[in-house]
Amino acid sequence: MSKDKRGPIKTVLGFLAGAISGATLGLLMAPKAGKETREDLKAKSEELVAAGKKDFAKKSKELKVKVDEVTKNFEKGIERLKSSESQEAISPEPKEEKGAEKPKKETAAKKATPKK
Question: Residue 103 gets which letter from DSSP?
Fold first, then answer.
């Protein structure tokens, strides 16, 4: 059995190419006069543009709401960080001094090696 190595993308592209060529042939072979066909195409394109503008306006409003929501959450996070920093400044945990050295630990390998 041979496997079909074409992916779903190629199938969709093939379908779209067939649909476009079918639509083109349908327009060219239509019984309407050229002027009528152009008027129909113009009317349909105006409808599509109006629908696109309406959809764009709707999506823009939704995006603005989301951006405002994310901005508010971001500002709340910043405020929480600021308040936690101010609380740390009031009661900081004891930290080691910069000049103090920690005692060095000898490794087992160094202890086992005899000095000459």
Answer: P
In the block, residue with structure tokens 């609380």: 87
Structure tokens at 3: 């496997």
**pLDDT (tens digit, 9 = 90+) per residue, 26-62?**
777 777 777 887 888 889 889 989 998 999 999 999 9
Q: Which residue has the tokens 């042939």?
A: 25
The structure's pTM equals 0.40
Cβ atoms of residues 62 and 69 within 8 Å: no
CA distance linking residue 89 with residue 76, whole number of Å: 20
Q: How far apart are the first and last CA of the chain?
A: 77
Confidence band of 72 (pLDDT split at 50, 70, 90)? very high
